[in-house]
Structure to design on (666 residues):
């Protein structure tokens, strides 16, 4: 699915990623853990194609195709989704309108018929139920006046609606209380399937109690210094990151 | 057109026999004052940002009766369902193109003046108002009786379409008596290359009356629009204004509201959209003279190219006006490095128990928001479009009439699709 080889990246000429290697196969869930400033968010921004984040060396491929030259929208349409750490407030743009536009952009890209309001509502109602969200979410402007938890739920709602192949969850647990965390984790777990992959980016292992990654990688100073199974998260919880510093 | 150049045209209008002789002293008085003061210049605070160069270089002439036939005309393009329309071609009232409006008193300018014993309702020393009074040759007045509430909105459709550079000076009065209400649309369309529209609209709202005033301006890129609206409000009256301004070389709108009676409310809103090198200015003055009145000013500009925008909003709360509730907001999107916005929200408060808020923001589209939308599969163009829609959309909510709202949103969408 996603193949990252010796990826170096910089922002404002400051080198952040210093040779990342990561292979995510269909159906797998990988977690990247690391301290603040280790490059976790840079990695997700490079994968999703954010402006000013430039790859200087190495490769980034989705299903054996280099995506470094793709626009953010093409990456999205081809199946990469990121749940933002800080979802953006978009005043004046109604959530339904936005979600419908996004879903229809995708349908159009794949030559499918665009959904009308009724068709869209059917899709969205099921997803709302899954996340225990109220219909009134849809009438509000995108993320405006949403609490931290509501914003994150709205991200997962978008994920369920857009049905990506690779979902990146960037610090999805931050700002969530335990109930919201459980609901979101359940949404994510139900969404796992043999042809979908996840990349979970997190600071703490709290989220990993509820969603179980197959692999855990520790990122320090722009490099993956250790990889392992679920047990690595517990070890990190116990010992912190310092024992991994070289 | 310089101050002196107006003398020739003034001689012409004074000699027109189809205007009543009784109007002449009013014209002369205004023109004498205009000749004394001359045109405004940038040294005047109120005119600091208004660039009159194009206006000064043009040579405008009076619209003659031969100009009452348009060069081209396709009224279907401007149709707004369920409205009664009065058509003016180059300032001339066209009865045969207009809807018949029963049960509402519509008066010609002269008849209106006569009903007021030949005295001006809102004398003003503003040079362009003096010019309007000197040359008033167009428009119509609406007088609502007590409790009258015309079912359909009334629209004045001004179409400019001539080879010559015409000067058109409508003077319009809208008088709303006790408990009456009206939706009035002022719709300006320009086919002519260059013309000078200098309109004066004067509204009087008696107790408990309401007026929804919608202004739609879409002119040719060389048109000059200098328009004034003066509203006087009595107790518990309600005035709502919405303006959509597109195109024209120079467009300046001055709106003055006098809240004279307790409990009066006014809401003044506008969206100005530029494409190339327009100057779009909104100069709003709200005077709170009485207690318990509320007012809001909400203007937005989206500027492209080398255009410039002005928001000069002022709210004055006079000593008597306790418990005033006023809001002022100006938000602007600048989408080119060469566009300029001058935003100047002002508050003057002389009472001590009031609630006044004001704010102004000017910036480009939010890059994070664009990335967010693109990361959900929307193209760069569609992301920009969606953000501009989101920026403007709240303003349309003040338009209560659905067919007018639809017409305006369509105009906005058309502008948007041409610009993105």
């Amino acid at each position: 699915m996603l193949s990252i080889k010796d990826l170096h990246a910089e922002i404002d000429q400051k080198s952040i990623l210093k040779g990342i290697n990561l292979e995510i196969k269909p159906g797998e869930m990988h977690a990247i853990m690391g301290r603040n400033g280790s490059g976790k968010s840079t990695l997700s921004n490079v994968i999703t194609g954010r402006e000013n984040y430039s790859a200087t060396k190495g490769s980034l491929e989705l299903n054996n195709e280099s995506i470094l030259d793709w626009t953010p929208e093409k990456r999205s349409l081809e199946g990469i989704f990121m749940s933002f750490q800080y979802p953006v407030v978009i005043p004046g743009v109604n959530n339904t309108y936005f979600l419908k536009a996004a879903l229809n952009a995708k349908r159009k890209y794949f030559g499918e018929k665009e959904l009308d309001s009724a068709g869209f509502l059917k899709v969205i109602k099921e997803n709302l139920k899954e996340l225990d969200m109220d219909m009134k979410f849809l009438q509000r402007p995108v993320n405006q006046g949403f609490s931290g938890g509501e914003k994150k739920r709205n991200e997962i709602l978008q994920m369920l609606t857009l049905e990506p192949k690779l979902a990146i969850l960037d610090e999805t647990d931050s700002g969530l209380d335990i109930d919201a965390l459980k609901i979101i984790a359940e949404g994510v777990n139900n969404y796992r399937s043999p042809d979908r992959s996840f990349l979970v980016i997190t600071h703490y292992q709290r989220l990993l109690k509820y969603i179980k990654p197959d692999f855990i990688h520790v990122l320090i100073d722009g490099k993956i210094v250790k990889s392992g199974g679920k047990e690595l998260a517990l070890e990190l919880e116990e010992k912190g990151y310092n024992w991994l510093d070289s | 057109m310089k101050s002196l150049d107006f003398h020739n045209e003034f001689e012409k209008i004074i000699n027109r026999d189809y205007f009543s002789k009784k109007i002449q002293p009013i014209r002369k008085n205004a023109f004498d004052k205009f000749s004394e003061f001359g045109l405004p210049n940038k040294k005047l605070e109120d005119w600091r940002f208004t660039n009159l160069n194009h206006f000064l270089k043009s040579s405008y002439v009076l619209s003659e009766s031969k100009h009452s036939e348009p060069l081209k005309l396709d009224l279907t393009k401007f149709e707004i369902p369920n409205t009664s329309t009065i058509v003016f071609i180059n300032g001339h009232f066209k009865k045969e193109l207009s809807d018949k409006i029963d049960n509402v008193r519509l008066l010609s300018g002269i008849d209106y003046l006569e009903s007021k014993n030949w005295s001006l309702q809102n004398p003003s020393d503003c040079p362009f108002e003096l010019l309007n009074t000197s040359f008033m040759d167009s428009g119509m007045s609406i007088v609502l009786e007590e409790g009258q509430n015309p079912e359909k909105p009334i629209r004045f459709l001004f179409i400019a379409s001539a080879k010559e550079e015409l000067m058109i000076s409508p003077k319009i009065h809208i008088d709303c008596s006790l408990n009456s209400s009206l939706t009035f649309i002022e719709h300006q369309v320009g086919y002519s290359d260059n013309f000078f529209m200098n309109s004066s609209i004067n509204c009087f709202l008696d107790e408990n009356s309401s007026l929804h005033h919608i202004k739609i301006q879409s002119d040719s890129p060389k048109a000059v629009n200098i328009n004034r609206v003066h509203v006087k409000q009595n107790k518990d009256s309600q005035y709502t204004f919405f303006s959509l301004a597109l195109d024209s070389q120079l467009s300046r709108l001055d709106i003055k509201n006098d809240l004279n009676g307790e409990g009066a409310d006014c809401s003044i809103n506008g969206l100005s959209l530029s494409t190339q090198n327009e100057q779009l200015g909104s100069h709003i003055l709200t005077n709170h003279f009485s207690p318990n009145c509320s007012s809001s000013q909400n203007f937005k500009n989206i500027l492209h190219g080398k255009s410039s925008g002005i928001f000069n909003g002022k709210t004055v709360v006079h000593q008597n006006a306790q418990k005033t509730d006023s809001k002022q907001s100006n938000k602007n999107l600048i989408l080119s490095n060469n566009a300029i916005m001058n935003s100047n929200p002002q508050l003057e408060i002389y009472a001590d128990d009031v609630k006044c808020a004001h704010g102004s923001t000017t910036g480009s589209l939010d890059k994070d928001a664009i990335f967010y939308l693109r990361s959900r599969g929307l193209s760069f163009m569609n992301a920009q479009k969606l953000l501009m829609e989101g920026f403007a959309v709240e303003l349309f909510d003040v338009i209560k009439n659905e067919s007018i709202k639809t017409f305006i949103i369509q105009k906005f969408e058309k502008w948007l699709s041409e610009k993105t």
Remarks:
- The longest strand of chain B covers residues 181-190.
- Residues 161 and 230 of chain B are 27 Å apart (CA to CA).
